[in-house]
Specification:
heterodimer; A: alpha/beta; Rossmann fold; six-stranded mixed β-sheet; globular; B: 70% helix
């Protein structure tokens, strides 16, 4: 008997008339790990949302463990044993680990008072049973990414979920953490059916028993993993016959002229903790410096300071050869902040924010407005809007970056990949900028979009721009960077050339703070 | 998770306005001793004579001007709830200036000075809220509302004390000289030059919003503040600036009422105009051009119910209920837009090229309109 059988599922998004799911059939065998793969917008999330009761299909039927069901809420789905772990963790930051795990079924005394002792004991038992190392009394906000993920997994299991849906579970994990997660999933397999939404082909081959490939709202293949090769899977996902996975070589031309070096950057964190301390690095023309860290280790603070959204506590900067700026040293946090502001407003420092919606877009406004906003002064002559010119450059950018959108379409209607490509296209308009600050440029994007964006980044580097790449994605850092710097708890734990000696495994050890390079 | 039909903003407004009218008719039919004449008075009397028609148009003038003021702030995500106080204070400043200058200078100078005084007062009041928001993060909704409540009391105190007309038993200022009052356009009604001024103002705002860089930057500030900062737009300047302009327009509305139909300021001068202007701006659904029909609709409601009150012996409380119900419906129908403006949508990653799932925003949007 199949654990899940979805038949003829169709979901139409009006008024655009897009079929997010088009007569999709999916059968998942009991107790196995079934991967759902596809590009952004292929419809896998919609399908999983329907299964989890978060969306209604326009057509089609669902059977769970042989019984026909019809969900109108996530609670309905939960009663049938279906639990979904979201990409963005749903964790109550202020509550303890134990409260988070047993949320919704807290053990109580008479009169509904929560039984703290039993709560801690039950949570500790569960944590032990699944082989995790969480402290039940710890506030959830102190957990790292993988801790929060374990927490969410435990909560679903405590809610008696027999069918787990995991949405991109490894996208924020290091190699070591992914391996630990996979070990847990292997342990759960058999008792539990697991649906794994991913676009990492490696993950599928490593852990899944069966795989369903989706493209443009349809299922294009459903196969056992034992009978499929990596290249074949990539071809199926992208829908092309030639889909050689590129192996990009780092530039490695050796240090060239430095444009901006920053020394002793310090940022205050929460309470008396330091979010960043003693950060020094140098950006050179024609070079990509990749800075890698796990969430909560200072990458966000570094982004905020460099983009001028936050002031540093201590900082010194040395400039060299940036057009319109005198060479020399700038000291003190106020001057440093003013310098970054000037670099940004005079388009010498182009910045791609990691939060592409909150900081990088006005979703309610048209594509055109979003595109011209940072360089708007070009499109107002004598105080009047130059509509034709704005339309033309937007249109050109849409074409040259292969963005499927219309200048007058609302930005919110674009897929994540297209939005990101638009944000990047915007940066490339600032042709003469010396520095590119790129934060998580391909987060959540599929292979094809990622590849297109990586291509553009390398191209910018080759045209002599200095690129600072902040990313939590180890593969991205290793693939693109000429030099690599790793942060752990706000300090540099590794820095060096990306000369091939640095492996994913070693990088993972630095990221987790297990090891520290001597030089740092 | 019921999926509901998505109405366009226009349909939603029409639905709300229609329901308000239906409700008004029902109240009249139930409450009026003679329903048919009451209905006629309500719907048609405002159009029946030059006097009635002109008065209705005049009633729309402050709503148009203050409505533009609310809309402007609203579009930049600033909510000016201090309209009552700004209108009242603006009117009082205009009146005091006019009284002081009317014997000393030419009428035109006195009029322009009064208008300037009214606008400046409104602008100062509102920019306090803008400054507090920009510098301290104080909610401009709360500060403008509280400030306005205090200003209303202060103005009342001035009217019952130093500014009271010694010759009158009422709590009112002295009357401005006739030479200062704006020319009437449709005698015997009080419709005056302020009406075309308001129309021009709407046109100008619309033009600026569409073609000027300030309009463009304002729209970005209004939809996403962080993105505005990302683009290097001086967000704080826009907070203070839009609040100031919004206050100035409220002050202008007050000044034109003094220089137009009233010629003086009496206690309780603003009489809910500030609140009605908020409803007008909501009804206009973020469109400058929409202010005109919205203001006319509210003026019609007001004029119609005034006619009924005079003509058919329905107690004024019924009329108040009717107006409140209309305002409630219209406001409710506009709330989804307001909510969307204040909400930052979830990540767009992995969404197909289609609007966000309707169960997050769309469901609520159609419900308020059909509540009754």
């Amino acid at each position: 008997m199949d654990a899940v059988r979805m038949s003829n599922i169709t979901r139409l998004f009006l008024p655009a008339g897009v079929r997010a799911n088009d007569h999709v059939n999916l059968s998942v065998a009991q107790g196995c790990i079934h991967a759902i793969v596809g590009e952004n917008g292929a419809g896998k999330s919609t399908l999983m949302r329907i299964l989890a009761g978060l969306d209604l299909p326009d057509e089609g039927s669902i059977e769970v463990e042989g019984r026909p069901v019809s969900f109108t809420s996530a609670a309905d789905a939960a009663r049938c044993g279906i639990g979904m772990m979201h990409q963005h963790f749903l964790v109550f930051e202020e509550l303890s680990v134990a409260e988070n795990i047993l949320f919704g079924q807290l053990p109580r005394h008479a009169f509904g008072i929560i039984d703290r002792k039993r709560l801690m004991r039950e949570a500790a038992d569960m944590i032990q049973a699944y082989g995790f190392a969480l402290d039940p009394a710890m506030p959830a906000e102190e957990l790292g990414v993988s801790g929060k993920q374990q927490l969410e997994l435990l909560r679903l299991l405590a809610g008696k979920a027999r069918i787990l849906i995991l949405d991109e579970p490894t996208s924020l994990l290091t190699e070591q953490e992914s391996a630990a997660l996979f070990a847990t999933l292997t342990l759960l397999k058999g008792r539990t059916t697991i649906l794994l939404v991913t676009h990492k082909i490696d993950d599928v081959l490593k852990i899944a028993d069966a795989v369903t490939v989706m493209r443009q709202g349809k299922v294009v293949a459903s196969l056992p993993v034992s009978s499929v090769q990596a290249e074949e899977l990539a071809c199926l996902i992208m829908g092309t016959s030639s889909c050689v996975m590129r192996d990009r070589q780092p530039h490695g031309a050796g240090a060239s002229e430095s444009v901006l070096s920053i020394r002793n950057l310090g940022v205050r964190g929460k309470g008396d903790k330091r979010a960043l301390s003693g950060i020094s690095f140098s950006l050179s023309r024609g070079e990509i410096l990749g800075v890698c860290a796990m969430g909560g280790n200072g990458l966000a603070e570094l982004e905020d300071v460099l983009a001028g959204f936050r002031t540093a506590e201590t900082a010194t900067a040395a400039l060299q050869g940036i057009e319109g700026f005198p060479d020399g040293v700038v000291e003190g946090s106020t001057n440093f902040h003013a310098l970054l502001h000037a670099l940004r407003s005079r388009h010498q420092l182009s910045y791609l924010p990691s939060d592409r919606i909150k900081r990088g877009a006005a979703p309610d406004l048209p594509v055109l407005h979003n595109f011209i906003a940072p360089l708007r002064e070009r499109y107002f002559k004598n105080g009047r809007f130059q509509k034709a010119a704005a339309e033309q450059s937007t249109f050109q950018a849409l074409q040259s970056f292969a963005i499927k959108a219309h200048p007058h379409q609302k930005l919110a209607e674009l897929s994540g990949g297209n939005m990101q490509k638009l944000a990047l296209a915007r940066l490339f308009l600032e042709e003469n900028g010396a520095i590119l600050l790129l934060c998580e440029p391909t987060w959540g994007l599929d292979i094809r979009a990622t590849d297109a964006i990586h291509e553009r980044i390398v191209e910018a580097r080759d045209r002599g721009r200095a690129v600072l790449l902040l990313s939590t994605d180890v593969d991205e850092i290793l693939e693109l960077s000429d030099s690599i710097m790793v942060l752990h708890r706000g300090c540099i734990v590794f820095e060096g050339r990306n000369d091939g000696t640095l492996t994913r495994d070693r990088l993972g050890r630095y990221l987790l703070g297990i090891e520290r390079a001597d030089s740092a | 998770m019921r999926r509901s039909v998505d109405l366009t903003p226009g349909q939603r407004v029409a639905l709300a306005a229609g329901t308000a009218m239906l409700l008004a008719s029902t109240v009249l039919i139930v409450a009026a001793p003679q329903p048919v004449p009451a209905l006629v008075q309500f719907f048609l009397k405002p159009f029946s004579s030059r006097l009635a028609f002109g008065s209705m148009l005049q009633g729309a003038v402050p709503l148009m001007i203050a409505g533009i003021g609310v809309l402007l702030a609203f579009k930049s995500s600033n909510f000016n709830l201090g309209g009552e106080g700004q209108i009242y204070a603006g009117a009082l400043a205009a009146c005091v200036t006019g009284l002081a200058l009317q014997d000393a200078t030419a009428p035109l100078v006195a009029v322009l000075a009064s208008i300037a005084a009214g606008m400046l007062t409104g602008a100062l009041l509102a920019s306090i809220s803008g400054l507090l928001k920009a510098m301290r993060g104080v909610s401009e909704m709360i500060s403008s509302f509280l400030l306005s409540a205090a200003v209303v009391l202060l103005a009342d105190a001035l009217l019952t004390g130093p500014l009271q007309d010694p010759a009158s038993n009422f709590q009112t200022t002295r009357m401005l000289s006739r030479a200062l009052l704006l020319p009437r356009l449709l005698p015997p009604s009080r419709l005056d030059l302020a009406f075309p001024v308001a129309l021009l103002l709407i046109g100008a705002t619309r033009y600026l919003a569409r073609t000027s860089r300030i309009g463009f930057e304002l729209a970005i500030c209004g939809t996403n503040e962080a993105f505005a900062r990302y683009c290097g737009i001086p967000v704080e300047a826009y907070m203070v600036g839009t609040m100031a302009v919004s206050g100035a327009l409220h002050g202008l509305a007050g000044a034109l009422l003094v220089l137009g139909p009233y010629g003086r300021v009496m206690r309780g001068f603003s009489a809910g105009t500030g609140w009605s202007a908020i409803s007008v701006a909501l009804l206009a659904q973020g469109s400058e051009a929409g202010i005109l029909p919205a203001a006319l609709f509210f003026a019609w409601l007001k004029a119609g119910s005034d006619q009924v009150m005079i003509g058919s012996g329905i107690p004024s409380e019924f009329i108040a209920i009717l107006q409140a119900a209309a305002m409630f419906l219209v406001t409710a129908s506009s709330l989804p837009i307001m909510r969307r403006h204040r909400k930052i949508p979830a990540s767009g990653v992995e969404t197909p090229a289609a609007p966000q799932e309707p169960d997050s925003t769309g469901q609520a949007s159609s419900e308020p309109g059909v509540t009754p």
